[in-house]
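fyi for ur records
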Amino acid sequence: MFENIHWSVYSKASSKQKAMKVFSELEMSLGTKLTLLACEPYTEGEYKYSLIFTSPLNQTDLAHAVLEALLTSRKLGRNWSVTGPRLGAQDNWHFDGICIKPTFIGVDWVMFTVRND
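which gave:
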């Protein structure tokens, strides 16, 4: 079962409060309840905060999971580089995407992963 889309986002938010505002706006844009796993300062480069979270996927087969991930990711950016889907150890599937120029205001980089492990 593909239960969640796992997301990593780099934001230029200058404080944790502003990063949480970006998170709330992401939640509204994606149209679903997100589960925040981390909101941490990011000191490399020009990014200020890293947001790690999941969104529900609840798909039982790979094809539907990939399609749903692509449709969802399109809400954050248009130019995605994707890898897979690929079969890993113990029959676990992985599908990844990276967008280095998202269209979502306040976000500079997005990555998603879908897996059934």
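The chain has one domain: 2-115. thats all i got for now
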